[in-house]
From TrEMBL:
One of its GO terms (molecular function) is oxidoreductase activity. This is Nitroreductase family protein. It comes from Ideonella aquatica. It comes from the Bacteria. Keywords: Flavoprotein, FMN, Oxidoreductase. Residues 13-167 form the Nitroreductase domain. Pfam families: Nitroreductase (PF00881). Belongs to the flavin oxidoreductase frp family.
């Protein structure tokens, strides 16, 4: 098998896993995956301004469960990996060498958080290649400051994303993606017109709606809130409510200010 075949097969096999066996996850296997991930990821300035916190402790996981909106996987998965943007270590190194201090601004936040996301995704692939299952926890962003405090992060260290990790106890179907025509542009951005939106979203609208309505409590919520399409669902109070996002955005701004990334 060529490398391209192996990577193709790995990518096609990706599924977010939300149900895990209770078998332990060997620490050496996790560290090998993380070390591969850092080596296999490009890194801005090769500064490696990232930290990952491995959490296995049940007490901590219980507290993280609350901070992650009580998503079951936090309790079920034996391991949580919290990826942090970290300019603290670099700043400490600068100070120790008597160099001018830096990396305490919005640019550095982006540089470090992009590195953290890149490494998280490479780690996800490295873990999946070893048969482990993962699911991202987007809720990291919404509880950034509280997770940082719980995990003893100093200033200039903020969690960006979390992976729950464990041996899969489910084999979900592959989830659809937007077709190539929706997002791959030649030379210049081609604005979507009404017809292309219809074409590119039709399957997703139908499949997504059917998937949610197949879950009894979801079907009840859709009916109670008068939701009749996937688009209406996404910005409804039970998914990505813009008013709630506005509050979370203000929280993120406060966290960046308090942790030294925003003046
Ligand atoms: C940044 C990010 C945050 C996510 N947050 C969550 C989450 O909080 N809970 C969850 O169940 N899935 C979460 N997911 C998983 C997505 O729902 C999933 O990747 C998407 O539905 C496609 O499914 P697939 O990964 O199985 O292909 C997240 C994915 C990403 C990339």
């Amino acid at each position: 098998m060529t490398d391209a075949d192996a990577v193709h097969r790995l990518l096609q096999a990706h599924r977010s896993i939300r149900s895990f066996r209770q078998d332990p996850v060997d620490d050496a296997l996790v560290d090998a995956s993380l070390i591969d991930a850092l080596q296999g990821s490009s890194s801005s300035g090769n500064l490696n301004m990232v930290s990952v916190i491995k959490t296995r402790d049940e007490g901590l996981r219980r507290q993280l469960h609350t901070l992650h909106g009580e998503q079951d996987m936090i309790l079920q998965a034996p391991l949580l990996l919290t990826f942090c943007a970290d300019t603290h270590r670099t700043r400490t190194w600068l100070a120790q060498r008597g160099a001018r201090l830096g990396f305490s601004d919005l640019v550095s936040w982006h540089v470090a958080s992009f590195d953290a996301m890149i490494i998280a995704q490479t780690a996800a692939l490295a873990l999946e290649s070893r048969g482990l299952g993962i699911c991202y926890m987007g809720t990291t962003l919404f509880s950034m400051a509280a997770i940082a405090a719980l995990l003893d992060c100093p200033d200039h260290v903020l969690p960006v994303t979390t992976l729950v990790v464990g041996w899969p106890d489910e084999a979900p179907a592959q989830r659809d993606r937007l077709p190539a025509s929706a997002w791959i542009h030649d030379e210049r951005y081609q604005r979507p017109d009404a017809a292309s939106i219809e074409r590119d979203f039709r399957d997703r609208d139908e499949r997504g709606k059917a998937r949610y309505l197949a879950v009894p409590h979801m079907a009840e919520q859709w009916q109670a809130l008068g939701i009749d399409s996937l688009a209406h669902y996404y910005t409804s109070p039970i998914k990505y409510d813009p008013d709630v996002f506005a509050e979370f955005s203000a929280d993120i701004e406060r966290a960046l200010r308090r942790n030294g990334f925003l003046a």
